Fold these 2 entries.
Entry 1:
Amino acid sequence: MTIKIRLTLLLLLLTTLGFSQKQKASFTVVPLGVKGGIDEKNLSAYLVAPFGTTDFIALDAGTINAGIEKAIEKNTFTATVETVLKQYIKGYFISHAHLDHVSGLIINSPADAAKTIYASQSCMQMMEDHYFNGDTWANFGDAGSGYQIKKYHFQTLKMAEKTIINNTTMTVQAFPLSHVNPFESTAFLIQHKEDYVLYLGDTGADRIEKSNKLSALWQTIAPLIKEKKLKGIFIEVSFPNEQPENQLYGHLTPKLLNEELEALSTFTGKEALKSLNIIVTHMKPPIEKITKLKQQLYEYNPFQVHLIYPEQGVQLEL
């Protein structure tokens, strides 16, 4: 066999492998906002859909309109802002009711279409009491005080119970997180066919929070990691390691992320975490601290996870 033929066959093989890997993508992710403050145009919100569809759900909703505009600018979406908002986004999953996770949903509600908002009981109660209450903001929901416009259906999620996501082929399970104990945030385990992604809202480390909520979550998802069904974990790292532990306010550092990955590895084995997609969320400005945070994650990655830093408006495939 000549060298030319060998090179041709090798190129064909590489092309085929590349095509196969692309076809293995299970989820499309479009970050509408990635920071933990202070830029109101770029706060936590991630669109996730089964690969090849536009049946998106929003995981948190700190920024919506500005994020859609950025995605159009980046050629991620070719549709209009109105189409993405009203037709592509099928529902909202709110991890907790802090403003940097809900402000985009609230502000955009008059322009939105009918759909479902999903949250834990405590989070939904805060949404009804403090935001969609007829005073702070018009009540666009179908529960709570004030005149109910009933554009949104408020659906309370029961912890660990599998729930069908309306107008999609996905399901969700919710799990509690500790975000300055006893205040709770939420993790959402999204399933499509045999594949999963896990999104964590704001969370502190179990050791700092004096909690076992992350440990319980790690035990639940460990089989999915070992079976290569979990396509990625969205998890916050808000501060560099220099942040004092008594000033974390329910957030993680690179050191604490690795502490939690160590806890996860007790259920999966260390080798199972190698190349696992870890999508780092909620990094807090200024840029100097974000740069240091990324450097610390890069320099100490004992489990060799695949670190992904999402960019507003730029599509990811998992």
Entry 2:
Amino acid sequence: MGRVRGTSLANTPGLNERLECRLRAAAPALADLERLTAAPGQLAAHVSAHGDLDPKNTLLDPSGRLLALDWDSAGRQPVLRDVVTIALDWSTTPSSFRGVVDAYEAASEDVRVPAKPWVFGGWVVAHSGWLVHNATRRAGSALGSAEVSTTCDRLLRLHANLPVYVEALSHR
């Protein structure tokens, strides 16, 4: 998102004063998170992926089987971005994040997620895009405002805890 873009996002017409102040205050941390997680071009291995497999895009059928919905983001993407995105979206702590990564790695013999901040870049880019979408197109609605607030919180939480999440990846 970048500092200038994040700060300018706070000037979006239709934002209430609370969201405007919040985005302006969050802009430096969001820009820093984007900088810290920028991929250094090491994303060669790709996989066919859902692209947005978080809890809001799933349902359980009557037999307890998990069903994936909303396939508009599906396609080829770097495998490391897929595993880290799924792990962040399906966990609430660094240790549960590590558990999801372990399960993905066990099911995908060739996948090993390095303990580096850049592996979080795909999730940061996706959530930054969701933040921009909601701030520029839906902030005037209750749902849009809630999504801006929730997404900003999630990005800031990762920024604050990035070293802990990177450390969780180093424990094999």
